[in-house]
Amino acid sequence: QVQLVESGGGLVQAGGSVRLSCGASRGTISTYNMGWFRQAPGKEREFVAAISWNRGSTYYLDSVKGRFTISTDNTKNTVYLQINSLHPEDTAVYYCAGRTGWPPRQNEVRYWGQGTQVTVSS
Predict the structure, then answer these.
(1) Which H or E run includes 5?
(2) Helix (H/G/I), strand (E/B), else coil: 62
(3) What integer best gives the mean pLDDT of the chain?
(4) Closest Cα to residue 67, out of 57, 56, 82?
(5) pLDDT digits 0-9 by tens, 56-93
(6) Which of 18, 30, 51, 104 could make an SS bond with 74 (beta carbons 3.0 to 4.6 A apart)?
(7) Alpha carbons 109 and 122: distance in angstroms, whole number
């Protein structure tokens, strides 16, 4: 049973950047599709970004393309989400997702992290 723990969230000014990390324990992520989802206040959780198990493909929510970058470091068993040019509407709890389908759908996610809050001030 893989356990995922996110870190890196916080309060950030609009236009700034943040890098979220998701470390995995009790297992390896090296053979899994990995992803990030987010849930804004009062909204449903939505897909944001994913990277394929062979790290050869990435997939993004259209509205974040060009600002969000997902990456992994298999040696550290960690997946990252770099977010640039933050907008207030990026405010949400960001969840790491392990062993997703492809394309990613949240009802197919096998492992979830507990979430990390990103708050963007205007």
Answers:
(1) strand 3-7
(2) helix
(3) 95
(4) 82
(5) 999 999 999 999 999 999 899 999 999 999 999 999 99
(6) 30
(7) 33
pLDDT value of position 107 = 93
**pLDDT tens digit sequence for 99-122:** 998 988 999 999 999 999 999 999
User: What residue type is assigned to position 68 of the chain?
Assistant: F
Encode pLDDT of 16-45 as tens digits: 999 999 999 888 999 999 999 999 999 999
Q: What is the pLDDT of residue 94?
A: 98
How far, in Å, CA of 9 to CA of 111, rounded? 20
Say what the pLDDT of residue 103 is.
86
CA–CA separation, 30 vs 106, rounded Å? 20
Long-range contacts (CB closer than 8 Å, 24 or more residues apart) made by 113-116: 113/4, 113/5, 113/6, 113/22, 114/4, 114/5, 114/6, 115/6, 115/39, 116/6, 116/7, 116/8, 116/9, 116/20
C-alpha distances out from residue 37 to 23, 75, 107, Å: 15, 23, 12
> First and final CA of the chain: distance in angstroms?
40
